[in-house]
Amino acid sequence: MKQKLIFLDIDGTLLPPGEMTIPASAVEAIRQARANGHKVFLCTGRNLRMTKPLLAYGFDGFVCSAGGYVGCDGKILVDLPMEPAQVEGLREVLGRAGAECTLEARDDTYGGIRMIERFAHLFPRKPGQLNSEAERWRKTMEYGMTIRPIEEYHGEPVYKVVFIAPNEACLAEAKQLYEDQFIFCESRLGDNPSAIVNGELINRKFNKGTGIKAICDELGCSLADTIGFGDSDNDLQMTDVVGISVCMANGSDNLKKLCDRICPAVTEDGVARELKTLGLI
Q: What pLDDT was estimated at residue 202?
């Protein structure tokens, strides 16, 4: 088979949200795919620090920070942090609206105590009630992993802002000021229109799709020879550009409607089973 480039979202796709151990079935599938001449990449909203432990399993590169930091075969292809004025402006307008946020730099993530409390203690722990991004952050903050106090932030380049707002209306001013610069990728935590909203701000200069294109350009490969796996709405730009788009059975209804294929859930060896179905292993 002609060489394919395989792009795997992490949380809710390669492994359960917030976990750090790749299932054995996926580890073996990735090994076999690479042995068969294909290349495999992580394609995630996580920053490099939260991604790096997984790179030891054997990957050819990564699209981190939702496309803001991209590497292939040991070479950095994309490094596009926010402008400092954007970071400060967003912190101010979100704070004024009663929203909390975390700042994701390349090697650290900074969060306020109220953000930690909301994720770790206020959200229900019932399966299916949190999207994968929210569940990742709840677990991350509950167990104190990789989060530094916001007071320790001293201007390091920031690639992404993650937020929690009391309701969607609280985001109105932020959207008015910044929607031309950032995609507000958001989800309600419940069915109530006034429910808490969590999400992330993705710079319009890049996304997972542009990260994939950068890797294809570096390797001289066609987008037609790419396959992307995802589970949530922050994977839309990835699945828009790949030759074959795959949504996990545990994925969002919106993504399922737009993807070419639906594979078994992350808890049912979905990645390994779909790679086999596609004839890559």
A: 85
pLDDT digits (tens, 9 = 90+) for 183-208: 898 877 666 666 788 888 989 999 99
18-22 LR contacts (CB < 8 Å, sep 24+): 18/135, 18/136, 18/137, 18/138, 18/139, 18/140, 19/139, 20/53, 20/54, 22/54, 22/57
What structural domains and CATH numbers belong to the chain?
5-80+206-278 (3.40.50.1000), 84-203 (3.30.1240.10)
Buried-state track 168-179, b at ≥16 Cβ within 10 A, e below 16:
bebbeebeeebe
* pLDDT tens string 232-251: 888 999 999 999 999 999 99
**Under 8 Å CB-to-CB from 126, ≥6 apart: which residues?**
none
